[in-house]
Design brief:
The structure is a single chain. The chain has twelve helices and eleven strands. It has a six-stranded mixed beta sheet, sandwiched between helices. It has a five-stranded parallel beta sheet with strand order 3-2-1-4-5, sandwiched between helices. Helix 2 packs antiparallel against helix 6. The chain is globular, with a radius of gyration of 21 Å.
Amino acid sequence: MDLQQRISAFSKLGDFLSQFSNNNFKKNDDIPFNDLFFDGFKHQIQLAEEHNGWFTKANIQFALRGWSDLLTEENLSNWLNHYKLDDIHPKTVAVVMAGNIPLVGFHDFLCVLISGHNVLVKPSSNDKQLLPFLAKYLEHVQPTFKGKITFTNDKLENFDAVIATGSDNTARYFEYYFKDKPAIIRKNRNSVAVLTGNESEADLKALSQDIFTYYGLGCRSVSKLFVPKGYDFDNFFKGIYHWHPIINQAKYANNYDYNKAVYLMSEFEMLENGFLMIKEDRSYASPIATVFYEYYDDLDALKTKLASDKEKIQCVVAKNFLNSEIEFGNTQQPELHDYADDIDIIDFLLTI
């Protein structure tokens, strides 16, 4: 199987996913193997919702829509055209996946297979319905993938390299356990937004997407704001208000009530609008339904701080602040070349 065949297979998977990216799933008779897989994937989406209360239909659809948009022959070819993938000697790469948002490990899965290697997946117990089903679809579209994709819930064995994602605590375990293997080990990261007070209502409305999509559970979710002294939070609250129906989601509401009670009992100062709390805090990782903020005096000093804390930060949302900044509203729409932790996975896979 050459690179073009692999690209074609994932492009067909993108076409398949396009049927599930809107509220009303619409079957397309031109999709290969649709009679075999369409209803089955609808069922897997339902199972994922039932298994994990954070995986609402809307969040699953958002993830599927993102991958459907990315998995085109043009996008895949443009992404891969500067790598030398013609002479790969296939190795087995273990991928230990997180389960914080739907299909969060798909990019690792894609990178391993598209580069010509075999993948050994250890899925998260929180996200185990969708990817195995999509892998079966890939095997039907391109039968050469059979034998190259393995899922396991047991101890990982017989692999040559590993990509593992977890918390800071599990990362220490991963670093010890995989110390003799080529590895990418990911730890906790969060995303931040730098505000100046000159943002338009449209900017702040877009920022709300970065905060609330996936209930703030992703590493690309903005969990902290940097604001100038004297910043008027009224404009911020106005800009995000259209997200107020989020409080009707039971798990989110329970977290909101619990964290609010903790803050009140601890006599912490915070501001809230009925569905989000903001609290001054130097930490980057905020609880669900909370965004931390920190004041800054000087933008150059803030650049220095963010550079020194880069191992804790996934994305910086801003306007005309950093060369690497992300526009308001775009953190949850990464491109294929937007590698987690800025570690080029394809380059890594070319070295094993």
